[in-house]
Amino acid sequence: MSAPMSDAPLAVHVPLDGGRAYDILIGRGLVAEAGARAAALGARAAGIVTDETVAELYGARIRESLEAAGLRAGLIVVAPGEASKSYAGYAAVCDGLLALKIERGDLVVALGGGVVGDLAGFAAATLRRGVRFVQVPTTLLAQVDSSVGGKTGINSPLGKNLVGAFHQPRLVLADTATLDTLSEREMRAGYAEVAKYGLIGDADFFGWCETNWRGIFSGGPERDEAVAICCRAKAGVVVRDEREDGERALLNLGHTFGHALERLTGYDSARLVHGEGVAIGLALAFRFSARLGLCSGQEAGRVANHLALAGLPTRLAQVPGGCGDADALLDAMAQDKKVRDGALTFILARGIGRSFIAPGIDRAEVRAFLEDELRAG
Ligand SMILES: NC(=O)c1ccc[n+]([C@@H]2O[C@H](COP(=O)([O-])OP(=O)(O)OC[C@H]3O[C@@H](n4cnc5c(N)ncnc54)[C@H](O)[C@@H]3O)[C@@H](O)[C@H]2O)c1
Ligand SMILES: O=C(O)C(=O)C[C@@H](O)[C@H](O)[C@H](O)COP(=O)(O)O
Ligand SMILES: [Zn+2]
């Protein structure tokens, strides 16, 4: 028998066209409901992609839920950490799904953080030229950001997320109880993306975060509220600009710098995880904006102070093992997907909640800024 449905989870609808609209459900206990909800999508089998840590914690629960709902279910388990979002990781997941005989009408279920979500989503996008998939995000970062919007992919040694596809999930089940087992470090990393939503376009939300961030970390009602606010904001952007022809690039605030740092640290999660790179990138984006006279130094300071208070890094010198010189950073940033005609595009800010897309940024200007940042330590 399947588990009964939980008390009304929060729901955010993503009204995409072409029969691709889907719901994001947010609440405690949703992993145990995955079976009933997957069965409602009409699937007969599910390939659950997860990592070793998450498999140990929630693998049996989701498999039992799927089997209780009448689905044939099998697990494909990758190593935890960013290094799995690789060509080798992708091949292993595809072959695992094929060995399970996952058909086009079946489901790929991504159970885990953003690494598993991006990897399983890309496998689903390409396996048999497209299989449906469900996101069951288990990190704060994945619940507020990566499970929504359909960006899937893997890293190349030449740069972050350089091989991928847009492939929207059919359903997102954000079980906020799974965050109870998340490490402090990973909670902080996810929080960088939470703060990002305030910094992009919602100054009131950033102010709310400054007051309520401890409740998000400790699992108070603020946690579900923050997940819902971020998902609503992201869903709105994705519906207006699914393939990043314009506005969606705003979601990249902090990422031009952050992705370069991830590449220069070899995608080694022991040194730097995505959210930490984003935190440094957010602080850099605001300090660069202040340097260009776009926003006040006081606002840039407010951003960095809040991130630091939440335990996040905000300086290049805080990258463990270092991040190379300005040339190495510029070289890594040259692979950014927002580059146009060889020129860098940054997301800059006229203030907190007032971010905008800035194409054609002069390389020399960026180099001088990075050199000063590296000197500042
Ligand atoms: N597609 C998108 O729109 C998008 C958006 C943001 C980030 N991303 C990508 O997401 C990735 C980062 O995701 P992440 O921060 O979730 O990292 P992650 O997937 O590596 O998870 C972080 C760590 O937490 C562990 N973990 C996961 N859930 C847990 C739980 N409930 N309890 C205990 N441990 C748990 C994992 O095993 C892992 O070691 C990056 O690759 C980034 O590029 C994608
Ligand atoms: O969904 C988006 O769009 C984002 O930019 C969200 C980011 O937080 C995320 O890290 C994304 O994967 C970055 O996308 P990329 O196109 O710069 O690889
Ligand atoms: Zn991100």
Automatic annotation (TrEMBL):
Domain 3-dehydroquinate synthase N-terminal: 76-188
An annotated GO cellular component: cytoplasm
Superkingdom of source: Bacteria
Cofactor note: Binds 1 divalent metal cation per subunit. Can use either Co(2+) or Zn(2+).
SUPFAM superfamilies, alphabetized: Dehydroquinate synthase-like
Entry EC no(s): 4.2.3.4
Needed cofactors: Co(2+); Zn(2+); NAD(+)
Domain 3-dehydroquinate synthase C-terminal: 190-339
Cellular location(s): Cytoplasm
EC main group: lyase
Keywords annotated in UniProt: Amino-acid biosynthesis, Aromatic amino acid biosynthesis, Cobalt, Cytoplasm, Lyase, Metal-binding, NAD, Nucleotide-binding, Zinc
Gene Ontology biological-process entries: amino acid biosynthetic process; aromatic amino acid family biosynthetic process; chorismate biosynthetic process
Binding positions for Zn(2+) per the UniProt entry: E193, H255, H274
InterPro entries assigned: Dehydroquinate_synthase (IPR050071), DHQ_synth_AroB (IPR016037), DHQ_synth_fam (IPR030963), DHQS/DOIS_N (IPR030960), DHQS_C (IPR056179)
Positions that bind NAD(+): G114, V115, V116, G117, D118, T138, T139, K151, K160, T178, L179, D180, T181
Catalytic activity annotation: 7-phospho-2-dehydro-3-deoxy-D-arabino-heptonate = 3-dehydroquinate + phosphate
GO molecular function: 3-dehydroquinate synthase activity; metal ion binding; nucleotide binding
Listed Pfam families: DHQ_synthase, DHQS_C
Pathway: Metabolic intermediate biosynthesis; chorismate biosynthesis; chorismate from D-erythrose 4-phosphate and phosphoenolpyruvate: step 2/7
Entry-linked NCBIfam families: aroB
Family: Belongs to the sugar phosphate cyclases superfamily. Dehydroquinate synthase family.
Known role: Catalyzes the conversion of 3-deoxy-D-arabino-heptulosonate 7-phosphate (DAHP) to dehydroquinate (DHQ).
Protein name as it appears in the record: 3-dehydroquinate synthase
Species, as recorded: Methylobacterium gregans
